[in-house]
Amino acid sequence: MSTTAHPTSADLFEVTRTETPVPDAEREAALAAPKFGTVFTDHMARISWSQETGWSNRRVEKYGPLLLDPAAAVLHYGQEIFEGLKAYKHPDGSVWTFRPQANAARFAKSAHRLALPQLSESDFLGAIQALVSTDVAWVPGGEETSLYLRPFMYASETFLGVRPSLEAEFLVIASPVGPYFAGGVRPVSIWVAEDYHRAGAGGTGDAKCGGNYAASLLPQQEAYDKGFEQVCFLDASTNTYLEELGGMNVCVVYADGIVATPPISGSILEGVTRSSVLRLLTDAGNAVEERPITLAELKTGLADGSISEVFACGTAAVMTPIGRLAGVGFDLTVGDGTAGPVTTRIRAELTDIQYGRAADRHGWLHRLA
Ligand code: COI
Predict the structure, then answer these.
(1) Residue 2: pLDDT above 70?
(2) What's the gap in Å between 165 CA and the centre of ligand 1?
(3) What pLDDT does 5 receive?
(4) Nearest CA among 335, 347, 332 for reference residue 190
(5) pLDDT in tens, 203-216
(6) Which end of the chain, N or C, is less packed with Cβ atoms under 10 Å?
(7) pLDDT digit string, tens, across residues 270-321
(8) Looking at the domain that runs over 188-338, which CATH code has it been given?
């Protein structure tokens, strides 16, 4: 049997290590109690694109500010996309990520919608692998911690005309993280926005682009100001059906065990965590319905007890129970306001797979280091 190591797409990245890495003690302190998205590793992976030369210059270099011309297209027209995935440390010290091929496919779809160049799955995975193997000391090992990976691409051409950029940059940065919501894994409160929408038919709602999140910030801020932690959007055409939260999908659990979630309609994001959770629910014998859910149905179900749990799901949020749901003229507690049994059980199953504590029966894990 041959013992030759096969080259991977990560080998195409030229690694230049920083001469000034964060000192070990400082890094260890950052890993001990990581807050979401505040500290970054020593390096970043990068590939440059131009229409003339295609993708070139695959490299891992020191993490640091980008040089952008003030006329760079992204600063004016928001031609930008991103992804979110995590690297998990397993009990034996190995490092794995979760369904990265799904993120690569969604990134390609987002790139198409934002008229950015297509990046191959091999380059997407290679960049992640090259960065994580360079910064492997940054993968935290504590409970509910991981290394959050943020691949993104932006239009870098210096040009003010409104047309797709002829130059782009793809990067991956990494940040050690704990739970997305401050205070750890606990039920959060949601404000249902009836006066703002996140996306409409034919828009960019199913692309993971910065513009969708920019549009969610004012309603999100207004929700904070009212004392809520997230905002829930309704559909733009009828203001009737649940769509998604500011940065995550939403699922509703009925007292009889049925779980419903808004369908992939073109205006919501096709969450990787969403589809994984639906699969685990199906495996567990719960009937899963991807169908329109009206706000009226949600309000009635919470009031009469036929809806017992509501949860948010996403890479950053994992599965977060929703304890309170309010909007103009209503303020409802979900169940008894604590995490319900279905949310708790499926969350444990999902994280047990991600952290290597349970068998990866669906082949979802991909080794990085
Ligand atoms: C994610 O779950 O990875 C997200 O992109 C949500 C948010 C942090 C933007």
Answers:
(1) no
(2) 25
(3) 53
(4) 332
(5) 999 999 999 999 99
(6) N
(7) 999 999 999 999 999 999 999 999 999 999 999 999 999 999 999 999 999 9
(8) 3.20.10.10
Residues of the chain with CATH 3.30.470.10: 10-179+356-367
pLDDT at 8 over 80: no
- The CB density around residue 6, as the number of other CB atoms within 10 Å, is 6
- What confidence score (pLDDT) does residue 35 get? 87
Secondary structure (DSSP) of 16-51: ---SSPPPHHHHHHHHHSPPTTS---SEEEEEEEET
Q: Whose CA is nearest to atom 7 of ligand 1?
A: 247
CA separation for the pair 339, 318 (Å, rounded): 14
Locate the ligand 1 atom nearest the alpha carbon of residue 317 and give its number.
2
Task: State the average pLDDT over residues 140-152.
Answer: 96
Nearest CA to ligand 1 atom 6: 247
Q: Can you give the pLDDT at residue 183?
A: 76
Residue 286 CA neighbour count, 13 Å, CB half: 25
CATH number of this structure's domain 10-179+356-367, picked from the four choices 3.40.50.2300, 3.30.470.10, 3.40.50.150, 2.30.40.10 = 3.30.470.10
Q: Please identify, by atom number, the ligand 1 atom nearest to the C-alpha of residue 271.
A: 2
Q: How far is CA 81 from CA 48, 113, 213, 263, in A?
A: 15, 10, 11, 22
For CATH 3.20.10.10, list the domain ranges present in the chain.
188-338
Mention every residue, 6+ apart, whose C-beta is less than 8 A from residue 177.
34, 35, 36, 37, 86, 140, 145, 146, 147, 148, 316
Rounded to the nearest angstrom, the distance between the alpha carbon of 246 and the centre of ligand 1 is 9
